[in-house]
Amino acid sequence: MKEKINPFEYSDLVISQDLVLATKSKDKVNIMALAWKTLGNLWGYNVWVVAVKPSRYTYEMLNQNPEFTLHLFPPEKDNVVNIAGSTSGVYTDKIKETGITPIPSKFVSVPIFKEAAISYECKVIHTAESGEITDHRLYFGQILVAYADKALVSKCFE
Hints:
By secondary structure, this protein is α+β, with helices and mostly antiparallel strands. It has helices at residues 11-16, 57-64, 78-86, 94-98, 150-156, and strands at 2-5, 19-25, 28-34, 37-42, 45-52, 67-72, 102-103, 112-113, 118-129, 137-149.
């Protein structure tokens, strides 16, 4: 069962793992694997900063609807990160392919997922270009709420 948590409660765990970022535009939900991210506090807001390459479908969707959810899945759901990072949502329904279950979010239009150990609901409050290092856009997502299923979180430490 998902409980509301402090966004920094499992910070060491979520920073060290690949996460899954979900977006929604119109009626389509898409997920992507996310390795380039950071968690912090900026301008008095708790934020996730996520890096998305302009060639990604997620980039297009985030620009159409500046909200996202972010998820850590337990080890038995490694297929979610693998599928999210290996195919484009333009051609594949990655939600159907992974078999994860969308649950309506409380504050954003993008769903969270029943099988996730930790989930965050975020709205984009700022963007910036990454500059000369790489060609990604940085999306600063204010964390509106964070949830954990503590039984699933415990599996992430095994």
